[in-house]
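Field notebook, page 368. I keep forgetting to write these up properly, so this time I am using the form the group agreed on. The chain and the ligand, adenosine-5'-triphosphate, are recorded exactly as supplied. Prediction of the bound pose follows.
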Amino acid sequence: MSNTPPKPKPTMIEFRDVHKYYGEYHALRGINGTIRAGEFFSLLGPSGCGKTTLLRTIAGFEGIDSGAVLIDGKDMARVPANLRPTNMVFQSYAIFPHMSVAENVGFGLRRDPRSKAEKARAVEDALEMVGLKGYGARAAHALSGGQRQRVALARALILKPKVLLLDEPLSALDKKMREHMQVELIKLQRQVGITFVLVTHDQEEALVMSDRIAVMFEGEIAQLADPETLYRRPNSKKVADFIGTMNFIPAEVVGETGGQIEVQVKGLGRARLEAEQCPAGRGDAPVVGLRPETLTLLYPGQTTTERTVDGIIDEVIYFGDMTYYDVYLGGTDVEVRLSMRNTPGRPILEVGSKVDVAWSASALVLFR
Ligand SMILES: Nc1ncnc2c1ncn2[C@@H]1O[C@H](COP(=O)(O)OP(=O)(O)OP(=O)(O)O)[C@@H](O)[C@H]1O
Ligand SMILES: [Mg+2]
């Protein structure tokens, strides 16, 4: 075993100050960032923020007004879509219903000089890769939504692109099938090692699937980081609010010494925060953020080494495996949501109950 750290993966895609207008509308407003080779990368953001537009600038379906998009070190400005080392799987995975599954998958090999037998072999391999071995002769219209999705993937993968672009590929599937396909896609990506760029507006999907995520708002990347950093150390209130649930509590900065910041938090009291708990300010009024799972309800007789505050339960939301409680803190009008895992023998508490809530200063994030 060697102790040398893994080499950072080389860059596959680079955006250099990319701007794009649709007429007067400024759709991409200075996009910078890199996507590494072999990475599962997601573009995440609300509807209309420019995810599809950015993906299409990689594919070459959309020109840009200034800046540059590089793939594998090469400026794509003069490279048309059909000559780029990319392939796209669309949201409405347009498979050809009148063709067989094998004909669909082999469609991109029409002009490939290989023999018929070799192409048939490649189709079989691609189908096996997506878990559809033996489905080649089936009529494409006789497939379920999830199976069609996999045919579309096989059709893209058979062309061995360096980069696979996926625009909300799972949005048409029901929740169960979507979760199943998420895991399948992760496995597939690891197996083929191709760079995947996924567009999604579903933050859970992005967290589950990605090595790194670019969170976009209004044509800009607000934060580009790995899922854990985005979740634990969002760099703005807006990002924090978009990813998961975050309680925001008014706070006041009362002192700063040696990188530490002392805050007075309404309903909780004084807390000393490390510098890394205070991501770059974006003009948010001073508030602290606190995730629901970092707060704990104490049951009668239970003790803790964490700090506690008294509270009154205002709402109980039962989720089967979890219960969410909305609790007023310390006799104030500050209400937080906290989550508790349900275990046998742990009763669900009732609205109006007086409780103690444990919390820890290290779980706070300050936005100011
Ligand atoms: N061809 C076009 N002409 C004019 N405006 C466009 C065009 N395509 C997109 N837009 C606008 O650009 C913005 C970004 O669109 P885009 O499709 O990239 O959003 P998105 O993030 O993919 O949203 P969604 O999640 O709804 O798919 C939107 O405001 C959209 O209305
Ligand atoms: Mg879109």
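OBSERVATIONS:
- The chain has two domains: 11-237, 245-367.
- The chain has a mean pLDDT of 92.
FOLLOW-UP: compare against the apo run.
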